[in-house]
Amino acid sequence: MATDVYFSTNPADWEQLEGLYISERNPPGVISGADLSITGMASQCVRGPERVVDVTSPEQFLEIFGGRDYYDGGPLVGQVWAALLNKQFGRLAIRRVVAADAVVATLDLDDVVPTTIVRADASSTGAWATGANGVSIAVEDASDGDALKFDVVASYRGESVRYANLNTQAGFDNLETVVGTDDARWITLVKLADGRPLNAAAAPLASGVDGTLVAADYTEGVDELSAHEGVAVILVPEDSGFEATISGRYVTLAPTTPDRMYIAWSGVDQSVASEVTQVGTDITTRSDRIIWCYNLTYTIDPETSAEIPQGPHVWMASILSQTDVDVHPGDPDNSSLLAGIKRLARPNLTRADLISLRNAGISSLERTRSGFGFRSGVTTSLESGKTEITRRRMADFLQLGLAERLTSWVKKQNTTSRRASMDGEITAFLSELQDAERVVEAFSLTTTTKPSQRARGLELRLMQVRLIAHILHLVLETEIGTGVEITEQI
User: Fold this and answer.
1) Which member of 105, 202, 215, 321 lies 3.0 to 4.6 Å from 242 by CB, making a disulfide possible if both were Cys?
2) Is the four-CA dihedral 56, 57, 59, 65 of positive or negative sign?
3) Of residues 159 and 11, more confidently modeled
C-alpha cells in the first residue's frame, strides 16, 4: 500500500507525518429484542451426558439422548422424547436427569494371559447399553494389516461403528483420538495395560444400572439449566414424583435469575379445590417468573398407539417457544399448537372452576370452540400488574435486548456525542416496535443524571414503556328489537 495513505484511529499518529489518514469509526449499533424461545428441560432420557446440551434439531436429540425406549416395544424411558411428542418446539437445552447411584455398562477386552488391555465403557450411565438389547463390542484385525493394532466394532440397535487401527502397545494410546468425544458416541475405550486384546466375537456390555432417582437428581438439573446461557423457560416435563420439591426450587431460583421463567404443575390429576390448595402450599413465595398449569392431558404414542398422560405445563412450554412475546398463551390461533392433545382429564371445567383457578394464579387448559386452549395466561404472582405471562415476557424482551447492547457502552468516555448515540439507539429500537404495533404502545426516554453523578461515572436513563394490552374481556352489549332507535353507527 502507498505510504501516503495510513489507517489509524489514534489521533497521535495523524500529525507525525504528512499524508492521508483514514480513521474508520464503528457504524451505529442496532438493538434487537432478546430471544425468549429456548426451552430448558431437566428430564429422563434413554442415554446421554449428565450436563446441559444445546439441541437444535430432532436428529441431534435422537443421536445424543436416544428416543422412546431401551429396545423396540419396551417401556417408555425417554421422558424428553415424550415431552416433544406431537408438539412444536424451537431450540432446546436438555439436561438428562440421572440417579446418583447409576452405573456405566462395561466390558473388558483381554489378551491371552489374560490381562485386561482395554476396557470398553458405555458413553453414559444407565441400563441402556446393557445386555442383548444394548451395545455389543467385537475385536477384529486392524484395517491397515498391522498385527500389533486392532479394530473395535461397536453395534447398537441395528447399527455399527468401526474404530480402526487402535494401538495400545507400550508408549502408544490412540483410543480417545480414534473414538472421539462426541456426545452421540456409544462407547469410550480406556487403555489399562500395554499390548493388544485378542480378537473376539461381538459381546454385550454388562452391569449398567439406572439406579434410583431422588428429588436432588432433578433439582441438580434445574440448577444447571438456571445458569445456562440463553434459556428462557425451564421445566421438568414428566411426573417425577417430586413436584413439590421441584416447585420449591423454582421459588428459590426465580428471584436470582431475572432472565427466565419456570413452569410447574402438581404432577397429578386432582380437583380444582385441591389444585388451588397445592399451588399455595408449593409456591411459598409467588413470582411472575413462575407459571403453574392445570388439567392433565393425554396424547397418542405413535409407536404403540396408546395414550400417554402429560402435564399441561409441557404444552405451555411449546406455545411459549413458538410464539412472539406479545402473543397471549390463550390466543385462539395457538390451538394449532395444541392439536396433538387427544383429550383432557377434566374436560368440563365450569365458569366457577376457571375463576377459582385464575384467582389462584393458575393457567388452566380447557376445550374451547376452536380447539384446546389456555383460558388464562397468568403467572403465580397475585400482585396487580404482574399477573400476566405476556407482561413478564414483553418486559424481558425489552430489558434483555437493551442490556445486550448497552453493556458495550460501559467504561467508554462519557461524551455528548456518545450519549446522543446511545439514546438514539434506544429510541430507534422502541420506535420500530411501536410502528410495527409489537410490544410497545408508547414510550418515553429521559435523562435523569445530575452533574455530580456524571462526575462520579454514573449515567442514568429513565425508560417508560406502555405495553400493548390484550383484549382479555370482550363485551358486546346488544339492544335488539323493532323499536330500537339507531342514533349512531361506527
Assistant:
1) 215
2) positive
3) 159
